[in-house]
Amino acid sequence: MRSSNPVFSRRGFSRDNGYAGFNAAPQAGAPAAGANPYAQGTAPNPYATNPYAPTGAPAPARTGAMTIDDVVTRTAMTLGTVVLGAALAWALLPVDEANLGKSYGIAIGAALIAFVLSLVQSFKRKPVPALILAYAAFEGVFLGVISSAVSTYIGPGVVMQAVMGTMCVFAGVLLAYKMRWIRVTRRFYGFVMAAAMGFLLLMAVNLLFAAFGGGDGLGFRSGGLGILFGVIGIILGACFLALDFKQVEDGIAYGAPREESWLAAFGLTMTLVWIYLEMLRLLSILSGDD
User: Fold this and answer.
1) What confidence score (pLDDT) does residue 144 get?
2) For position 207, what pLDDT does the model report?
């Protein structure tokens, strides 16, 4: 599918690589053999065109096919790059009064570069590890400066709370997905995408009002509304984690090439960054209200 992340649109595993996602049109007639058992009765089979699904049997393991170890390894490398970039930015870009403007400028520049790199990767037919790791490095710089500022001006414990909160959301969604309390269907995908588009549109409008009208714009970043939208943002991030898990599970089951594990790592990293930022903002508002 062309799966979409709360922050950026990104390409999913491609049909010509042996994996088709939620947006693949099902063929007429009965579902193909090897169809996803969790999609039966809930959504049309999106894997009818999978060339690796033989008649009458599940897709066999292939040499060079993606495994869960590949996904874990690539995700650890990508997240590790984010953490390293954040640590270096925290140490080398001070946010005291004398350097705050300069550090913020570098952080915004890093965020823009990360955004551009993510767009370039999303239009590539195949994952480019160098692009993904470069995105992670620049994203880490942005997160490091923002986190340092929050720790300095709001509270030193907020950053650690946001990290722990992000880990708890990840673990909770993973458990719910493995227990099948969350069932990712075509309807679930459509609902999450519509909600995310509405959320981002409201945030963009609020940013415009803040830029041209001053203050907090429409009030979506502070007070009661800020808390509400922070919670909504975290819930959306959790929903996108479920979509990411589904993508990984089906990619492994239907023989996606090993290189596609970089796309899985890319998507999981962006989703976790989204959740961390929303968690950080929510905790900052709550700390400011104390």
Assistant:
1) 96
2) 75
* The pLDDT value given to residue 17: 44
Instruction: Look at residue 171 in the predicted model and tell me its pLDDT.
Output: 96
Q: What is the pTM of this model?
A: 0.78
pLDDT confidence of residue 59: 46
Dihedral pair phi/psi, residue 9, rounded to 5°: -80, 135
Q: pLDDT at position 4, please? A: 39
Identify any residues that bridge with 65 across adjacent strands, giving them in sequence order.
257
CB 233 within 8 A of CB 199: yes
Count of Cβ atoms closer than 10 Å to residue 69 Cβ: 9
DSSP character for 65? B
In the chain (290 residues long), the average pLDDT of successive 10-residue segments reads 41 42 37 38 39 42 79 96 96 88 93 95 90 97 95 90 96 94 91 90 77 62 79 94 94 90 95 95 80
Please give the C-alpha separations between residue 159 and each of 85, 95, 215, 248, 278, in angstroms, as whole numbers: 16, 15, 24, 29, 12
How far, CA to CA in Å, does 9 sit from each of 2, 5, 82, 101, 245?
8, 6, 19, 30, 17
- DSSP notation for 163-232: HHHHHHHHHHHHHHHHTTSS---HHHHHHHHHHHHHHHHHHHHHHHHHHHH-TTTTSTTSHHHHHHHHHH
Query: Coil, helix or strand for 9?
Result: strand
Instruction: Spell out the residues 6+ positions from residue 181 whose beta carbon is closer than 8 angstroms to its own.
Output: none
Q: At what angle do helices 223-253 and 158-178 cross, to 10 degrees?
A: 40
* CA 208/CA 192 separation, integer angstroms: 24
**Phi, psi at residue 65, to the nearest 5°?**
-80, 150
C-alpha–C-alpha distance, residues 282 and 234, integer Å? 9
